[in-house]
Amino acid sequence: MKVRAGFVSNSSSSSFVCDIFGREEAGYDGEYGISVATCDEGHAWCNEHSEDFEISLEQKRDIMLGDAQFVSDLIEEDLEPIKSLDKEVVEDSFDEYLSDYGEWPSSACPICNLRCISSDIILEYLEHGGSNIEQLEQEIRDKYSNLSEFRKAMKEKK
User: Fold this and answer.
1) pTM confidence score
2) 90, 61 in Cβ contact below 8 A?
3) What's the pLDDT tens digit per position in 62-92?
4) Which of 51, 109, 113, 145 sits most deeply, having the most CB atoms within 10 A of its CB?
């Protein structure tokens, strides 16, 4: 059985597997007919799922202002409404930011922050002794603050 994760390609055809729900999309030349979000740790998910893991206006502002390239590409009068948390400007600018600059930082990724616990995380946890799915998800969230901390603990248990 072939196991795929993230982006898989062969010649000009390729497929994408959503790291949140496992949905698979096939396409050509990187075009899937859906919008794909990625984080700087390599997680990828259907952008339609980003709404399920909404981040605050402050987080969106901080992500954009923390990107030196983004900040240098804007003039000061465009930055001011973002700095002052003008809701409409921050929302529109964040959508453009993701479109133009690409990746979500791991600090906002629903997978890195364990807001979405995928089956591979659950399986990894089960290998080290867990139980009921709902209990497991809560237990993972209670024990670990992020995916890096979780993976480090799992490596130490091997």
Assistant:
1) 0.61
2) yes
3) 989 988 888 898 888 889 999 999 999 999 9
4) 109
